[in-house]
Amino acid sequence: MDTQKQVQITDQLVESLKPALIFKNFVNLKQNNQLSQQKEVNSIDISHDGKYLVAGCEDNSVSLYDLERGEKVNTYYSKRYGVDLVRFTHHNKCILCASKRDNNYRIMYWSLHDNNILCSFVGHTDTITHIDLNPLNSTFVSCSKDNSTRVWEYEKKQCIIRVNKSRAACFDNTGNVLACLFIKEDKNDSQIQQIHLFNAGNYESKPFSIFNLEELPEIKFLKFSSNGQFIMLGSSENIIVLIDAYEGKQLHKFNANFNETGTPLEAGFTPDSRYVITGSDNKKIIFWNIETGREIQLMEFHPSTVACVKFSHVYCMLISACQNLVVWIPERAFN
């Protein structure tokens, strides 16, 4: 399999992506042992070494896959708490994930090596909406519908700081910057959305940059590109906005009617920061070329809403998920 260092991602390569592997393991059994409707995958992540894929599912399971071998390793269950927002830590057999059926709104630090929950982080008072790991160390940030952001240390098993009235947050590619979304009132008592950039080495300090997000729908999540130049803003409407990470200037507003139903969809960047990727509720996967703004839609292959998409940072491989997991590779790799 070609690695990202050997392959340049271009419009031609994106257009050539074809399904190479399908996992259809997310099913429930009825009492009479007949297969029921498949459950949706709600989150996916790829380990830092690129070897493993983890998928959280609405059937309260976490499945681990070996991407080098193209096979499933094991399935683990959290029937008591449910599973959402699965994320690898810096260890390729340890994950963080949020509960879905728990009034304590916990984040579980879970070793898949021995199927052991090492620690549960409790503090949020409403549904957890986002988890993002710091690429530099063992801290991570979580966001919640309780309008707070918390920074945790998973090795020391403690909360470092709580940021009130922050609705979304993420670390940059270096781990030195934490971006937080706030809603402020201006002089006319109108609400305006702002992104505050903080020094991740000193959370008590004031933000060193503040970006006003004018005339934009409600922002649901933030995400930095891997080169640190862009911040992606996912909105409550059919819009993905790209801003300059240094000045806050709006660069692109991508709109393709990809989410008419309001289903939570994951969006991201390709590892070279040249493309934005999203799934859609019309069963398609959409790429946008950041330089040209060109939209590329992959062939319709999924039977339902594509809620999760992620491009491997090690292999030239796209992972997408609905009820099924699909691995896409360039057409030339079939030859």
Enumerate the strands of the largest sheet in spatial order, edge to edge or round the barrel.
Answer: 1-28-27-26
Give the mean pLDDT. 89
Number of helices: 1
User: How many beta-strand runs?
Assistant: 28
Per the principal axes of the C-alpha atoms, what is the gross shape?
globular
Tell me the β content.
over 45%
The CATH architecture is 7 Propeller
CATH class: Mainly Beta
**How many domains, in number, for the residues?**
1
Largest beta-sheet characterization? 4 strands, antiparallel
User: What is the CATH homologous superfamily assignment?
Assistant: YVTN repeat-like/Quinoprotein amine dehydrogenase
Distance between the termini: 12 Å
**CATH fold type:** Methylamine Dehydrogenase, Chain H
Subcellular location: Nucleus
InterPro entries: Apc4-like_WD40_dom, Swd2/WDR82, WD40/YVTN_repeat-like_dom_sf, WD40_repeat_CS, WD40_repeat_dom_sf, WD40_rpt
WD repeats: 34-75, 121-162, 269-298
GO cellular component, one term: Set1C/COMPASS complex
